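Let us work through a complete example step by step.
Step 1: write down the sequence.
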Amino acid sequence: MKMKIIYLALFILVVLNSLYGQKDKDRSFYYDYGEHFYAESYAFPTEFTDSQKVVTIFRFSNSIIPFTKSDLSKISDKNQITNESFVSYPIIYVEYKDSQGIIRKRDSWEKEIIVKNYENTRDKKTYNYGMVSTLVTKDDLSIDIELSNKEKSRTKKIKIPLLKKINLNINPGISEPFFVFKFNNQEEREFQPYLLNKNIGFGSEDCHIFVLVSYFNEFEKYNFSIENKEITDNKNSWDGKLTFSGVATPKTGEYLELKEGQSGEIILLKTLLPERILQNERLKIGTLEVVLGADKLVPGKYLLKIWSASTKDTFRFDFAIEWENLPLSLKNPDYAAEMMYYILTDDEYKEIKSGSSSKVFKKILDYWKQRDPTPTTLYNEAMTEYFLRVDYAFFNFQSTIEKDGAKTDRGKIYILFGNPDVTERNLGPNNRTVEVWKYKKLNKEFVFESNNTGKLELVKIIN
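Step 2: predict the structure and record it as tokens.
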């Protein structure tokens, strides 16, 4: 029991170092899961009575597009090329259909993407961003977005079944919400969309909700509320669901615009209302802003309602707060609890494993809440790091003999201490494989040796 307490203390120490220091090299490309392709479309009013501007923004990870070895003669930017480089030519096709199912417009986007080495081609955390802006007939639209490439060897599709036409410049109304957050070093007027299929990402930053509104009354106010729609018996259900309400006053003359940033990311910019957009001289257009603190962001499904204090017309929008990079091991609470054996006492382990899956999940959250390095937010970096290590160990240390790599000796040490600074592998006595993991900051070495079946076992710890 004493050793497990020491292991837990060392784990927390390592996590704190990783939060405020240099991260270990990410090698998660060994396994693949998740969407890795997201798209959203937004309608904006124009000066034309029969058309609207539709902006489609998207992002996709390197891991879902095909790369080939670089051919210097075909690369436009030869300064990026080395002998280890790879290149990809993704294409985004966007097709707009009206309420009758008639194709009204097609558009496309393409780009040359160069990465330094093979490892980068499998990177799930490096995203490529883009946007397509076009004028389309003013009607309710369905939008098909396809990620492809010149050879059409790999495709992914997203369908937006309904984008309602925008009439903010003609009649009082409310636009769909923009879910954004403040990124490091961004200007005061700039925000970055989560770009999570019109959902909010679960993390450690505040969420800003922006809405365009049009109204007649100079002193118009809007009520808003956020209600929980989560299924109560969900095994991964969180306690303390977000409930939020209030009153917001629009900033008249302020407008919103989507644009590409200097690094290629998508930016939501607060700007001034463009001239000639208003087609009703009595109307005013402005923005509403609602800020949700990171301490209020609880994963789950929600309903956003906004209504004018004068007209009582209510806008409803379903959305979710999603943990995009939720560790696979946490999706199964019973398995997650089992993998906490390395840091729990026998009594703690027996207690956390008891009960239904939903109760086990709550116990896991409660346990890690007491060890959260950033307790002012619900996002728990220590818990996330622990179970990401479980995921990595499961895939990378499994073998034909040991199906679950997280339950191997190397898996245990990786989960507790992370990636070693130095790994040495050679043949020892009797031609058995010997692998040594060295941790410089901890001043520890772990020696693994293969047994008669080929399984690597921990045989020595050097302090």
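Step 3: interpret the result. Confidence is low (pLDDT under 50) at residues 18-30.
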